[in-house]
Write a structure and sequence with these properties.
This protein has about 140 residues and is an all-alpha fold. Among the domains are: about 45 residues; about 40 residues, no CATH class. About 70% of the residues lie in helices and about 0% in strands. The chain is built from 7 helices and no strands. α1 packs across α3. The longest helix has 22 residues. The protein is elongated, with a radius of gyration of 18 Å.
Length: about 140
């Protein structure tokens, strides 16, 4: 992967991350549309690193809000009233809505490991998953 390809895919990731479509799918579709081919292990590693970069960027950008919400949730728990304030309620709702809080889609977890190897990283499943899976 060249630096220009990595930059373009990083821009695609950043531009599509907050849309209700699959940004991971775009990391498969853009190279396919542009005729690029990458060794699967390298493509997977790049995808993981770009996703981690996105997470770190979001945490940095929202650090003040996250700090306020975590403080409100912990403070409300200490008082024995976990939903005492609007910030505490919002914090608990965000925890419940997060992928680690509850399963977002039971079918998603069941299918993750069962995708046949020849289909992984191919354009059609990625194209289908963009609007449908939002993953």
């Amino acid at each position: 992967m060249t630096l220009l390809q990595a930059l373009l895919l990083g821009v695609v990731q950043g531009a599509t991350e907050f849309l209700p479509i699959s940004s991971s799918g775009h990391l498969v579709l853009v190279p396919w549309l542009l005729g690029w081919s990458f060794e699967p292990a390298s493509a997977f590693l790049f995808d993981v690193l770009v996703q981690w970069g996105t997470l770190v960027a979001v945490l940095i950008y929202f650090r003040e809000d996250l700090s306020r919400l975590i403080g409100a949730a912990v403070g409300a728990l200490r008082q024995g009233r976990p939903f005492a304030t609007a910030d505490a309620r919002l914090a608990w709702l965000l925890i419940l809505a997060s992928p680690g809080g509850t399963p977002r889609d039971p079918g998603q977890g069941a299918c993750r490991g069962s995708v046949p190897e020849p289909i992984r990283g191919q354009p059609f499943p990625a194209w289908y998953g963009c609007p449908v899976g939002g993953e």
